[in-house]
Amino acid sequence: MTLRPPVEPMLAQAVESVPGPGVLGELAFEQKFDGYRALLFTPTGPNGGFLLQTRRGSLIQDRFPDLLAASDKLPDGLVLDGELVVWDSKAGRLSFEGLQRRTAARGRRSTRALAASLPAFFIAFDVLQQDGSEVIGYPYRQRRLRLEALFALHRLAPPWTLCPMTTDLLKAQQWLESWPELSGVEGVVVKAMSQPYRPGRRDWYKLRRRNTIEAIIGAITGTVTRPQLLFLGRRDAYGDLCTIGRTAPLRTELARLVGGNVIAAEAGHPWEGLRFASAWGSRDILDVTLVRPELVAEISADTAIDRGGVFRHPVRFKRLRLDVTAEEVPLFSPGPAAATG
């Protein structure tokens, strides 16, 4: 049976540590890049064409003429799963914001101009179909060998890239802990070598690279005595308190700790009039209480940050830093630098 879009990709659930081999058997570790999940389809007949599908099923190949131009290097009847990324040559790094610009572009002139300044790459980590035949029932071990053979046989080169994989846990830990921010690697995905590909199932595991930083608590949801979420900021060079993100829901003991120290703000809070979304990119607005921007939180955050310096995912609250004043928190800086210091 030939796969046709939309195809639900297999998904990964976030975990804090690598599952033991007793749970999954022999493990494979793949680098996770900061991009968009995408499935790639090459023609299966004379009337077919190159297709690029998002995780949610939208077709976006018209936004990526550079990938379309390079698709003649790929054999027919192929379906690949991977990560779509773009390279910002001016910044010298992968750019999630650039990827957003490319996927939102309309019109041939606009898409071609962006392709020149923000070239796209497809990082393949799985093969779902080959020569028009499904291989999703094969174990990951066999699918990976097929994928590696595909790249070798057809001498595939950028924009087609083979996702790095290892079965060495120590090497995977190096990817998490030692690779520079400019690499674009935001974590690792853990897969069982014996697993078939299960569309729509969240049976893989992902660990994100994380940094521990300090930030000022500027607002909360819930009550002052029992906060639920914390909204965080850092002051810029002019003394303005800039928002940088929010925490995941606090555990009961941590909510009590913060509630015993946080104080509702008086008039004149720097965030008066601001509205706070329930998630990055969401239009749902939360009911928040502004608090005195005096308490400092130590947080753990992953490396996914937009150009405005805001964390795209909720951060983890670790503890209050009652020994640190708000004036001692490092200054706000937009972009990836906001995750350090």
Automatic annotation (TrEMBL):
Residues 113-246 form the ATP-dependent DNA ligase family profile domain. It catalyses: ATP + (deoxyribonucleotide)n-3'-hydroxyl + 5'-phospho-(deoxyribonucleotide)m = (deoxyribonucleotide)n+m + AMP + diphosphate. CDD domains: Adenylation_DNA_ligase_LigC. InterPro entries: Adenylation_LigC-like (IPR044119), ATP-dep_DNA_ligase (IPR050191), DNA_ligase_ATP-dep_cent (IPR012310), NA-bd_OB-fold (IPR012340). Pfam families: DNA_ligase_A_M. Keywords: Ligase. The keyword Calcium does not apply. GO terms for molecular function: ligase activity. SUPFAM superfamilies: DNA ligase/mRNA capping enzyme, catalytic domain (SSF56091). Belongs to the ATP-dependent DNA ligase family. This is ATP-dependent DNA ligase. The lineage of its organism: Bacteria, Bacillati, Actinomycetota, Actinomycetes, Kitasatosporales.
